[in-house]
Design brief:
Elements lengths: L26 E5 L2 E6 L2 H14 L5 E5 L4 E5 L1
Antiparallel strand pairs: 1-2, 1-3, 3-4
Length: about 80
């Protein structure tokens, strides 16, 4: 009698974003030292950061530029 074999299908790999690793391209919104959102354009990142800062003024929000490897504080 043959034993049944288990076939496991491979799931497609997806790009996993981690909050403790800075992105390699584009811009990211950094909230209180944690990478929260990755965006392609600087204007979109500034707009999202300004909207979040308007709702929660106690947060320290920065925009991280992956190309220049620098952060800009949003006030």
């Amino acid at each position: 009698m043959k034993k049944p074999t288990l076939h496991i299908e491979e799931q497609p790999t997806k790009n996993i974003l981690r909050a403790d690793i800075a992105p390699l391209s584009g811009y990211a919104m950094v909230v209180d030292g944690h990478v929260k959102n990755q965006l392609a354009e600087q204007s979109a990142a500034k707009k999202a950061a300004s909207e979040l800062l308007a709702k929660f003024p106690m947060l320290k929000i920065e925009i991280y530029d992956a190309k220049a490897k620098s952060r800009t504080l949003i006030k």
